[in-house]
Write a structure and sequence with these properties.
Layout lengths: L3 H28 L6 H20 L1 H13 L8 H16 L4 H24 L2 H22 L5 H9 L5 H25 L14 H15 L6 E5 L5 E5 L2 E6 L6 H19 L16 H15 L3 H14 L9 H7 L16 H17 L8 H13 L25 H20 L3 H6 L4 H10 L9 H9 L6 H15 L2
Parallel strand pairs: 1-3
Antiparallel strand pairs: 2-3
Helix pairs in contact: 1-2, 1-3, 2-5, 3-4, 5-6, 6-7, 8-14, 8-20, 9-10, 9-12, 10-11, 11-16, 12-13, 14-15, 16-20
This protein binds zinc ion.
Length: 501
């Protein structure tokens, strides 16, 4: 007689298989699918989504969870099996409140919205995307109502990405960040002596850019036998399974840093996915702890490692070999300063470490207003531009560089953006711990040896998968809570030096 836990695992494995197939279709949609495939793909994804949902929220799952809970009651809190039951139960109780029709409706609407967004963005045509955006907001509100919340409907949406965090907690952290980042950016703008990065504004051919991206990824420890790199409009990473992790980049010949840092950023996500241990099985545990924790891994590699001087001590000679003309006479210090140039700009994914957060604050505020019905979709482009002016002092010349720039809303991801700024905070907290544990970390990075760092991340972050909530994980790693100061201290120190503030 198999026990309930074994039966539960078999059922969760099937749910995970359906999710894996869905992720593969989603990856294909963004990488390979011809435009004509959009409607059929929307159907495929909607069907898989509702099958996975129905299997997961069925009464049988609930009964198995009950019995498995009794079977695992004596196990330690952090054991794989006790964690599986605890985490699955939380998810089950949330998801069973969502009607299957709403699940299918959302999946179908978002798949169509994604294709509409790609077209609207290319043509900078918000009007053609507006009906989709309206539908997305309505579905987000319906989803929040189904999931339930205490204070604000946004909390229900945020919880899908950042379990057990509320919009009030996020707002408090963001206020602390604003209090130091806004004056920091202002001081840099007032300094009026921009860092010289003119050598970056030349033509950097696609082929060598691609080659360099692959070289850096391999050095970071990305396993090409268990992953691949492709191109897409919006860079992203999709784990189909820990043994099949796919990341994408976009290469723009006139913007070297765009593709370069996209690869390193997505590489950080991909290393997390490849580091999820097989022992966690095909279950809800085999994923990142949250989107914020996931983002901490990409930000850690992108900013704390790859925007540091030691990193370029090792990698600049490689890059110079690929682009001898463009980088003639550029030294490590000059390159380091250029990749840390701070300047208010339109595109979030290309923003520097300081202004990046301002892009997040404004999206968070717009989302809160949309979900609370304080802002009409028709007024969204104007509201966007007003916030850009308020936070960054610039106004996008068109919606392509404004409200249409991000993929998230078209994918139904309202409640997602705050996790990016939380990821910045967590990255600084986690990196400080890694630095304390690996005494000659800077020297290792300068020598191109990144494996001790990866091993530390594997041990302290990756191997736990989703066993712990973000708050529990931060407590385990740092002994404290998620905090803004370590990130703000790091940012002020680095930029004050570069800009001689
Ligand atoms: Zn990311």
């Amino acid at each position: 007689m198999p026990n309930a836990l074994t039966e539960l695992k078999a059922r969760l494995a099937q749910v995970d298989d359906l999710e894996g197939a869905k992720h593969l279709l989603g990856w294909d949609q963004q990488v390979n699918m011809p435009p004509g495939g959009a409607e059929a793909r929307a159907q495929h994804i909607a069907t898989l989504s509702s099958l996975a949902h129905a299997l997961f929220v069925a009464n049988e799952t609930g009964e198995l969870l009950e019995s498995a809970s009794a079977e695992t009651g004596e196990l330690p809190y952090d054991s794989d099996d006790a964690s599986l039951v605890r985490v699955t139960r939380r998810e089950f109780e949330k998801m069973r409140r969502v009607p299957e029709e709403l699940v299918a409706e959302r999946a179908h609407a978002f798949a169509l919205a994604f294709s509409a967004w790609e077209k609207a963005r290319a043509q900078s045509d918000f009007a053609s995307f507006k009906p989709h955006q309206e539908r997305i907001v309505e579905l987000a509100i319906a989803y929040a109502e189904a999931l339930g919340y205490d204070a604000h409907p946004y909390d229900a949406l945020l919880d899908r990405f950042e379990p057990e965090m509320t919009s009030a907690q996020v707002a408090k952290l963001f206020d602390q960040m604003k209090a130091r980042i806004v004056p920091l950016v202002q001081a840099i703008v007032d300094r009026g002596e921009p860092v010289d990065d003119c050598f970056l504004h030349q033509e950097y051919a696609d082929g060598p850019q691609w080659e360099f991206g692959q070289l850096v990824l391999a050095k970071m420890g990305f396993d090409f036998q268990r992953g691949r790199m492709d191109r897409s409009t919006h860079p992203f990473t999709q784990g189909i399974s820990p043994d099949d992790v796919r990341l994408t980049t976009r290469i723009l010949p006139e913007r070297l840093l765009s593709g370069l840092f996209a690869v390193i950023h997505e590489g950080g996500h991909a290393l997390y996915e490849q580091g999820l241990p097989p022992t966690l099985g095909r279950s809800k545990l085999r994923s990142g702890a949250s989107y914020g924790v996931h983002e901490s891994q990409s930000r850690l590699w992108e900013n704390l490692v790859a925007r540091s001087q030691p990193f370029w001590q090792h990698f600049l000679p490689h890059l110079r070999r690929l682009f001898p003309q463009q980088l003639d006479g550029v030294d490590v210090d000059g390159f380091f300063r250029a990749v840390n140039r701070v300047e208010p700009s339109f595109i979030r994914v290309e923003a520097d470490e300081a202004t990046y957060n301002l892009h997040i604050f404004m999206r968070f505020e717009l989302e809160l207003d949309l979900v609370a019905r304080r802002l009409e979709v028709a007024d969204l482009p104007a509201a966007w531009n007003a916030k850009m002016e308020a936070y960054l002092g610039i106004t996008p010349p068109d919606d392509r560089r404004g409200v249409l720039q991000d993929v998230h809303w078209s994918s139904g991801f309202i409640g997602y953006f705050p996790t990016y700024a939380l990821g910045n905070l967590l990255a600084a907290q986690i990196f400080a711990q890694a630095r304390a544990a690996i005494q000659d970390l800077d020297r290792q990075i300068a020598g191109g040896a990144l494996d001790d760092l990866l091993a530390w991340l594997r041990e302290n972050v990756h191997r736990h998968g989703k066993k712990f909530t973000p708050l529990e994980l931060v407590e385990r790693i740092t002994g404290g809570q998620i905090a803004a100061d370590p990130f703000l201290d790091y940012l002020e120190t680095k930029l004050s030096e570069i800009y001689r503030l």
